[in-house]
Design goal:
Its cofactor is Ca(2+). This protein is an all-beta fold. The protein is built from one helix and 24 strands. About 0% of the residues lie in helices and about 45% in strands. The radius of gyration is 18 Å and the shape is globular.
């Protein structure tokens, strides 16, 4: 477990999955969900090389079929610590004989966490080390305590979007998206009040870059946590049926398969492509307070 710290925040990260483990302010208040298995045993998994679900957990590439579980393998893989300072830490994962069994591409993936005042900057860097194009998706899944929410009590929280009345997708058809179903999320000048029933159809998913900034509000309508991203898709999730006291705000460069999708992996919706020697880099920012 590594730690980075400044005057305003103390952040812990595990090399297993390069996953955030804790975000505390100077008063010691914890903002990140702590993985109680009664609700959900993860905290902020990294999604790679797929985001969400594949149809029947299967994808096709150049006429061959491969199996891969939901959200890919990075979240369950040990990364290598390659750099650490007081306010920044960097982890890396490279292709291996094990990854090549179900993901036939050579790659380097690095994840860095850097503190700037009351912000955590998370940077993903994917490099194609293969002699052919590679295809991938990548995303974040950080979970945050809902302000004022007590375990076991009915879930009630508020998010403020930088978009009024965005259009959602539904990803509840065997873990994939119902291509023909959309709905408007009604907000009050961008504020969406959610309960457990908001997630009865699983995650609330937005594509087309509709939302770039999400604020998790307290009872005074003040932002306790803000997530900013340039990702083309965003998921909002809390496990249905558990009244879990947290909500996930998830920036995604990728998305589920359409239900029934049996096309090539390279043609999957929101797929990223890198030519040999090329690289991809993106950042999202968590602001506390």
């Amino acid at each position: 477990m590594e730690q980075i710290k400044n005057e305003q925040l103390c952040v812990q990260i595990s090399a297993h999955g390069a996953e955030l483990q804790s975000i505390k302010n100077a008063d010691g208040k914890e903002f990140l969900w702590q993985g109680d298995p009664a609700y959900w045993n993860r905290r902020s998994p990294l999604l790679f090389p797929v985001v969400c679900g594949l149809w029947k957990d299967t994808y096709r590439l150049n006429g061959l079929e491969y199996k891969m579980g939901r959200h890919g393998f990075a979240r369950d893989t040990d990364f290598k610590l390659i750099a650490q300072g007081d306010r920044q830490v960097i982890y890396a994962l490279s292709s291996s004989p094990e990854t090549l069994k179900n993901y036939p591409f050579h790659f380097n993936l690095s994840v860095s966490y850097k503190l700037r005042n009351n912000q955590i900057h998370i940077v993903w860097h994917v490099e194609n080390t293969d002699d052919k194009p590679i295809f991938f998706q990548i995303g974040g899944h950080p979970a945050f305590h809902v302000p004022g929410q007590l375990p076991g009590k009915p879930l009630k929280g508020s998010l403020r979007f930088d978009t009024v009345d965005p259009i959602r997708l539904f990803g509840n058809v065997e873990g994939c998206i119902d291509k023909g179903k959309h709905a408007t999320i009604k907000t009050d000048h961008g504020v969406w009040n959610f309960t457990q029933e908001s997630f009865k159809d699983d995650a609330v998913i937005f594509d087309h870059g509709q939302i770039r900034k999400v604020e998790l509000l307290n009872d005074n309508d003040e932002a306790e946590v803000t997530v900013e991203t340039k990702a083309p898709a965003l998921g909002i999730w809390s496990p249905y049926g558990k009244e879990a006291p947290f909500v996930c705000i998830e920036p995604w460069y990728g998305i589920h398969d359409w239900n029934g999708y049996e096309g090539d992996f390279s043609d999957k919706y929101l797929m990223n492509k890198l030519l040999p020697g090329a690289s991809f880099m993106s950042e999202y920012v968590i602001t506390i307070g």
